[in-house]
């Protein structure tokens, strides 16, 4: 399939994990992918890997919590490639796990907020500024089942991902009469490097709540994400899709 031929897709957190998987799927279907990530070495390797596969790819070192960095990088992408059709915000951090709120450091909460929620806000804000000029766009914000249900021991992650869900619903309604859709995706635990530092007891708790009794895969997330950001997904906006192995209850 060539669903994304001629389209430009910006993917934050694109050097690894879900972002890399989603970018690879879009690129494999003809899209030009522009990866934003903080890790320059990993970013360079991922861009090189994609190019070796014959994909169109570029990368920018971007701290999505910085308004100046996001604004400049979005504008640069638009200047170089002429437009932005797709934006997937996959960058995020987990923060403390297996930690009661009374033991949760305020500094740690602030750190997770600036990436997970402020960063999502900034990426959405500036992607929309680029897209509204052409009255077309697909925005996908990666949330989490933790934002729907709340994971005990992970109040920072749960609260910020819940904020992402609220952002999807509000911004989706704001742009509902345009050609731009804004949706979210709420995964349960996916097998990525992001979970390597998660407390094993925390992972065991989250896995036990998944009726399928297994972790999701990057490939499964990428396949669903690709449909959400395609032209085919034209009558869904302000919605948070489930990819949780049956865990989601709403």
Quick structural summary:
The protein is of the alpha/beta class. It is built from eight helices and seven strands, in the order βαβαβαβαβααβααβ. It has one domain: NAD(P)-binding Rossmann-like Domain (Rossmann fold, 3-Layer(aba) Sandwich), CATH 3.40.50.
Produce the secondary structure layout.
Blueprint: E1 8-12, H1 17-28, E2 32-37, H2 40-52, E3 56-61, H3 67-81, E4 86-89, H4 106-131, E5 137-142, H5 145-149, H6 155-174, E6 180-187, H7 200-208, H8 218-228, E7 240-243
Parallel strand pairs: 1-2, 1-4, 2-3, 4-5, 5-6, 6-7
Helix pairs in contact: 1-8, 3-4, 4-6
Kindly state the number of beta strands: 7
Considering the protein shown, what is the CATH homologous superfamily?
A: NAD(P)-binding Rossmann-like Domain
Architecture, according to CATH?
Answer: 3-Layer(aba) Sandwich
What structural category arises from helix and sheet content? alpha/beta
The largest beta-sheet arranges its strands as 3-2-1-4-5-6-7
CATH topology: Rossmann fold
Helix share bin: 40-55%
Uncertain regions: pLDDT < 50 for 5+ in a row? none
Percentage of residues in strands: 15-25%
What does this structure look like?
This protein is of the alpha/beta class and 250 residues long. The protein has a single domain, classed as Rossmann fold (3-Layer(aba) Sandwich). The protein is built from 8 helices and 7 strands. The chain has a 7-stranded parallel β-sheet with strand order 3-2-1-4-5-6-7, with helices on both faces. Helix 4 links the parallel strand 4 and strand 5. Helix 1 packs across helix 8. The longest helix is centred in the middle third of the chain and has 26 residues. The model has no long low-confidence stretch (mean pLDDT 95).
